[in-house]
Amino acid sequence: MKTVFSFLMVLALTMASVAALATTPEQEKQAETFVAQAKERYQAGDFQQSAQLYMKAYGQVQRPAPVFNAARAYEQAGLWAEAKPLFELYMQIDRGTDADSVAGQADAQKHLDAVNAKLAAEAAAKSAPPPRVAPVVAPEPPPPVVLPPVRAAPVIADPPTLEPPKDFPDARVTKPADDTWSDKKTAGVLTLSAGGVLIVASIAVAIVAHSDLANLDARLQADQLANTQGLILHGSVTQVDMDKGISTYNARQITAGVLGGLGAAAVVVGGILLWQDNNDASGHIALSTGVVPSQGGALWTLAGHF
């Protein structure tokens, strides 16, 4: 209850102290609308939306109260990184020496100290070393199984001569050509295909990553709020949104690089397998050149086979 009372007191006193600032009636009306909406969202527990509405009100009429209230709303939401610069901004723009201004500055400094303590605790937790995991001891392998010796079939010193079939005196039967692929050729074609798929996937992931980053930049440009302190402030895009977008972009770039590297390696391995299979079958790479007549000239051709 004391915190809510302090929040409302600073809002009322600060807005009264800066009522003399020159603004248009339209800006005053729009700022009052944003402040009323922000109060409703704060009472409903939607602190992040409340903070964004207070900053929109500050964008219309640059008074200290909306900045302090936005900082308190971010603090209630647990967004310390967003609350800190707003407390600092409030202490810069509310430089009055009257009792109300001095009390508001002291209250802002108290909340700023609490926010800094929260940020320091989070940084210490992130830098702490990971817990040590006990090594996994592999079980001992089972004893080898001893199989009985295999009895070899007797060797026939002088096998009997097989006579040719009666229906074919010459016994000359043409063996059909073997059109099946060797294991090495099959592996080479599959590896090349997988490499092509990985390279295409790498390009697609990289395109998506750059598209997401461009969308984030466009949101940041459209979300900037005007102010007279030379600061870059955003109404709806938070620090958490920016960190999440950059992390996603970096992860997709790494994924694209890994996929591209694997695809290139697969293409090289597949080419080597096909080259070795071709050498195993013919002893050399079968390539031939030729000339094909065409209109107004001729075309050189290079032909080969796997």
Defining key terms:
306 residues; mainly alpha; 62% helix; disordered N terminus
Proportion in β-strands: 5-15%
**Which range best describes the helical content: under 10%, 10-25%, 25-40%, 40-55%, 55-70% or over 70%?**
55-70%
C-alpha end-to-end distance: 83 Å
Overall outline: elongated
SSE order, one letter for each helix or strand = HHHHHHHEEHEE
- CATH structural architecture of the largest domain: Alpha Horseshoe
- In CATH, what is the homologous superfamily of the largest domain? Tetratricopeptide repeat domain
Spatial strand sequence of the major β-sheet: 1-2
Radius of gyration: 39 Å
Which structural class should the secondary elements be placed in?
mainly alpha
CATH fold group of the largest domain: Serine Threonine Protein Phosphatase 5, Tetratricopeptide repeat
Overall pLDDT: 77
| Highest-level CATH class of the largest domain | Mainly Alpha
Number of strands: 4
Low-confidence stretches: 1-20
Describe what you observe in this structure.
The structure is a single chain. This protein is mainly α and 306 residues long. The protein has two domains: 121 residues, Serine Threonine Protein Phosphatase 5, Tetratricopeptide repeat (Alpha Horseshoe), CATH 1.25.40.10; 106 residues. The chain has eight helices and four strands. Strands 1-2 form a two-stranded antiparallel ribbon. A two-stranded antiparallel ribbon has the order 3-4. β3 and β4 form a beta hairpin. The longest helix has 44 residues. The relative contact order is 0.08. The N terminus is likely disordered.
